[in-house]
Structures are given as C-alpha cells and as structure tokens.
Design brief:
Elements (H helix, E strand, L loop, with lengths): L11 H11 L4 E5 L5 E5 H17 L7 E5 L4 H12 L3 E4 L6 H11 L1 E6 L4 H7 L8 E4 L16 E2 H6 L15 E6 L9 E5 H12 L11 E4 L11 H8 L2 E4 L6 H10 L4 E4 L1 H14 L8 E5 L5 H11 L2 E7 L6 E5 L3 H4 L3 H8 L4 E2 L4 E5 L14 E6 L25 E9 L5 E6 L4 E3 L2 E3 L1 H9 L4 E11 L3 E10 L7 H7 L12 E4 L13 H7 L10
Parallel strand pairs: 1-11, 3-4, 3-5, 4-8, 5-6, 6-7, 10-11, 10-12, 12-13, 13-14, 24-25
Antiparallel strand pairs: 1-2, 8-9, 14-15, 15-16, 17-18, 18-19, 19-20, 21-22, 23-24
Helix pairs in contact: 1-2, 1-3, 1-8, 2-3, 7-8, 9-10
Bound molecules: adenosine-5'-diphosphate (ADP).
C-alpha cells in the first residue's frame, strides 16, 4: 500500500523559490572581481536566476545539456547554481586552478555547450577556446561595457547583456528529482579527472542534512562566508543550504588572502565560515602579528584535509571560535562526517575533548560507513583498528559520468559501498578518524605510519608554517618517513631541533628519518598539499642512512 502524501519532486529551483518567498530580504553580499562590494537580496537572486534560465532557452541549450562556470564565489555564480540546474540543464563547475589543458579536456568530456567565466579567467578562456569545439557560446561574467573588444574569442557575450535581453515571466519546469543537476570533476591526481554527476534529489537531501544542528547548524540568523570555492564540490553545498535556511551569504570573490578574508568577516559580521586549513592558516598568519580579534565569528567548518591541532587550539582558545572538523569528498557531494561533541564529551578535560575534536567526526544521517581489511571483512569500531573506509548513501556516487566499460574506475562500488581511498579508525561512539589517504600512508617494517600524525606534530612547532610527510623507499624497512617543512617567515629551525621535538609525541620508529626545508610545498587545485609533486621535487633525495 502506498502512502497518501503528495509526491512533490525534490528540485533545486524549490530552494531558491523558498528563499525568495520566505527570506526575500535576506542578503547576498559579494566581493567582485571588479574590486567593489555588491549587495542584493534573495528576491533579486531568484529573479535573475530565472532570467538566466530564459537566456539559456534563447541560446537553445537543451534540457540536460551542460553549462560550465569558471568563477569565484559570487552572486553571478550563485545565479548559475539555480538558473542552470533549476531549468533542467547541468551546471559543470570547473576548477580554474587546473592546468588549461586539463580544463579543455573536462570541457570536451562534459560536452559543455556554454562556458561562463569571471574576467580574471579571461586568459584561460583565450588559451583554450579553440580547443573546445563543443562550446557554442562563451560568456564573460561582467557588464556589457566591461567586455573587452579584442579577446579573439568568437561571439563572446557579456552575462549582463544576455540577462538584460530577457523580459517577462518564467516558470521553472517540473521534472523527475533524479534528473542530473550539476557535476564536478575530481582533482585527478592520477590520470584524467573523473566526474561526479549530482542529481536534484541528492543535492536537496544533502542541503537538508548539511543544515542540521549537529552538522553545519545553519540558520536564518547566520551570516555565512563560504571561503570553500563554488568551483569545487558546490562549496560544500552551502549555497543550497543557505537558500534553504535563509541565511545571509557573504562571497569572498577573488580575495582569498588573510587580510581580505578578515576584513570581510568584520565588515559583514560573519558568524560562520567554511574552508580548508591552508586558507585558515593564511587568516591566522594575518591576525596574529596584527593583534586582531573577531567581533562576530562564532563557528568555522574546517575540512578538505586534516585540521592540525594547533589550528583548532588557536581558533578555540585564542579567538573563541568553535571549530567543526568535517570530512567528505567530491564523490559524496561532499559531506560525510562532521565532528560535533555529544553530551558525554562536555565534562571531559580539555585535553580529552581535543582528542575527539581532532577526529573527522560522526556520520550525518543519510551516510553510512564501515572500515574493512584487505579481504573486505568489516573491522571493529574500537578507535584503534584501522582499515579502508567505505561509505554509502543517497548523495554518494554510484558511477562516474560517461565512463566506458565496467572497470573499477567507472563503477567503483564494492557490494554497494563506495571505497573512499581513505584509511581510518572508527571508535565505539561512531567517531571516524582518517589516518591517511591509502596512497599516502607510510608502510615501515610491516607497520603503518600516518603521515597526518607526523605533519600535525611538525606544525605544532612554533617555527613551522607547513609540513608534508612522505615515505621514501628503504631496502630494509620498505619505506621510511621524511618531513618537508616550510618555516614561518623570520623563524630559525634546524633539522635536529625539529626531530627532537618529536620525542614523547610519536613512537621512536615513527619519528621521521630526516627533515627537508623548502620555500614552499606544492599545493593542488583545491589547496591541498600535492605529494606527487613533492616526490618529483625530491626525486634525487637519498635517506641519511643510505648515503
Ligand atoms: P579530490 O578532488 O582531490 O578528490 P576531494 O575534495 O574530493 O578532492 O577530496 C577528498 C579527500 O580529501 C578525502 O578522501 C580525504 O582524503 C581528504 N579529506 C577531506 N577532508 C578531510 C579531513 N577533514 N581530514 C583528512 N582528510 C580529508
């Protein structure tokens, strides 16, 4: 027997409709590429999203066809989130930090029909347009009078001119909630990138879950700054969850440096911010020497790579900002776990609380997880046993977009579970902790050393700005860890001092064999340390006992 409730399809357009109707005056503030600060309301955002949908009709972009964005976080990008997906097209967000060749490759793979780009990415568009035969229309996200005359891109249009040409009403089409809504390519550290293809259903369910109190805890009273980019995994779903809650949105545009972020937080009285550790490192490095404080910021979600304890302490103890450690991935829309405490933790000592906070957290309703050994046998939740982490749920990929054949790279599931490529422990309370990416874990003498643990100890040293631990081949031990370190400006530190710092913090056999000082550690397109590139830099390196 079927239930007798209305079966309204979950759709992305319903989110912006809701925001328009119930939070019409809610603000969306954007630092623009043009340099100024732009302000408008959800009402205006909804109206312009519908105009964009009409403009795509005029351009004859068919239902299900892909429209790409190469853009910073800003109101026009927000309109694309709703106008493109809401009208049944698929928004392909492109990471501008990828190599131009790779951008051309993903545009071809996705068969993008229209590509809209911020003016800061004009050089990318100029470099690749001739290599992108699928693209019928290039659009610069700018006013008509800002469009340069001689770009060499045939038929380049201005976004504002396209919108201005549309008038009259528009009604969002209705369609099956399983229809594709947007797509995002993984960073593709090995081979060509693979795309996760999200649906309206997966996106709306994820937006609901993300807003919950023990997840991101978003409300109409928040002023949210997503520093995490809209060009990668939908800015952790914040644009959708913000529309669902009516929260004020503050977009940083291209201003990702510590000063610009700090100024925006204060100017817009941001209560809530989200980003990867490297961004927060830049913010803290700006605040510390200038003796700055936050007047409004209450919480920050940190994820994308492991949040070092020193960062949690700085935010919590020094600035009174609660850190929510989060874990997820492109293939998971992206949220999987978030670290919020349970009642039993509240009476613990600060040191014990910190041990919990360092974990990536517990599952959000909708996601299930398990750890398994090499034979796919499930491992216990004891907080010590580590294994490969597998997940499933309605916003986890089933297959990659347009893969060919039945290979693991196309259909990754194992008995219905998605293998994340992460190695983790899960404790009796269900808190998961990543020990490593399976490819980064260091296998030494039959034991595993977590590169994350080694890095966390290094960055706790006051002279260390950034640290990356990698395994080097060793004839006796298989691999031995070394740590590459970037010193804070003006700080002195020797190899011996740092190695001595590990005493009592890691078992003797886990202490790195060597320290290599570098000016910078290579960062990937999403701000994560790129260990493959680091290995290239250190290709001639020889471990001390093998010299
Ligand atoms: P990519 O496109 O490089 O796959 P994702 O953003 O999808 O980038 O990255 C997902 C991976 O990032 C996870 O599988 C995990 O290894 C790592 N990651 C994400 N959040 C955390 C975290 N809080 N702690 C440790 N690792 C994390």
């Amino acid at each position: 027997m079927l239930g007798l409730m209305q079966s309204q399809q979950l759709s992305i357009s319903s989110l912006i409709d809701f925001a328009e109707r119930h939070h019409g005056e809610g603000q969306i503030v954007s630092r623009r590429v043009e340099g100024d600060i732009h302000r408008y309301t959800y009402k205006e955002c909804a109206a312009r999203s519908r105009q964009l949908a009409k403009a795509l009709d005029t351009l004859k972009v068919a239902f299900g066809e892909r429209v790409a964005s190469i853009a910073w976080n800003g109101y026009r990008h927000m309109e694309m989130y709703f106008g493109v997906s809401g009208s049944g097209r698929v928004l392909h967000t492109i990471n501008p930090r990828m190599h131009p060749e790779q951008i051309a490759w993903v545009i071809g793979h996705a068969q993008d029909q229209v590509v809209c780009f911020d003016m800061s990415f004009l050089p990318i568009a100029k470099a690749i347009h001739a290599k992108c035969p699928s693209v019928r229309q290039w659009v610069a996200l700018c006013d008509a009078d800002k469009l340069p005359a001689d770009t060499g891109i045939p038929g380049l249009a201005s976004y504002e001119a396209l919108l201005a040409a549309e008038s009259g009403g528009y009604a969002w089409p209705e369609f099956d909630e399983n229809t594709a809504s947007s797509m995002c390519y993984t960073s593709g550290t090995t081979g060509n990138p693979k795309a996760a293809l999200y649906s309206h259903r997966s996106t709306v369910l994820h937006a609901y879950a993300a807003a919950l109190p023990d997840v991101m805890s978003l409300s109409a009273r928040d002023s949210i700054l997503p520093v995490v980019p809209m060009f990668h995994v939908n800015a952790w779903g914040i644009p959708y969850s913000a529309a669902l809650t009516g929260a004020k949105l503050v977009f940083p545009g291209p201003g990702m440096d510590g000063k610009s972020i700090y100024d925006l937080i204060e100017l817009e009285q941001v209560t809530y911010a989200a980003g990867v550790p490297t961004i927060w490192q830049m913010l803290l490095s700006h605040m510390e020497p200038n003796g700055l404080r936050f007047s409004s910021l209450k919480r920050t979600v940190i994820g994308g790579s492991a949040c070092p304890p020193a960062m949690i302490t700085a935010f919590n103890d020094k600035y009174g900002v609660e850190v929510l450690h989060a874990w997820g991935m492109t293939e998971m829309s992206p949220l999987g776990t978030l670290c919020t405490l349970k009642n039993k933790h509240l009476t613990m000592s600060e040191a014990d609380k910190m041990k919990v906070r360092l974990k990536q957290g517990r599952c959000i309703y909708g996601v299930d997880m398990k750890i398994v050994d090499g034979n796919n046998n499930e491992l216990p939740w004891d907080g010590k046993t580590y294994g490969d982490l597998l997940v499933k749920g309605p916003w986890v990929v089933r297959e990659y977009f347009k893969g060919v054949g039945d290979t693991e790279a196309v259909k990754p599931l194992i008995d219905g579970w998605f293998p994340t490529g992460d190695v983790a422990t899960i404790d009796a309370d269900g808190y998961m902790q990543i020990t490593d990416r399976s490819k980064d874990v260091i296998k030494s003498g039959g034991e595993w050393i977590s590169s994350i643990d080694i890095e966390n100890i290094a960055v706790a040293h006051p002279a260390v700005a950034m640290a990356a631990c990698i395994g080097m081949r060793h004839p006796k031990w298989d691999e031995r860890p070394i740590v590459a370190v970037v010193k804070k400006p003006g700080q002195e530190l020797t190899r011996e001092e740092l190695l001595a710092f590990y005493a009592g913090k890691a078992a003797k056999w886990q202490v790195p064999d060597d320290v290599v000082f570098l000016d910078a550690i290579p960062l990937g397109a999403t701000g994560k340390m790129q260990k493959t590139k680091l290995r290239d830099i250190l290709k001639d390196y020889v471990l001390p006992d093998l010299r």
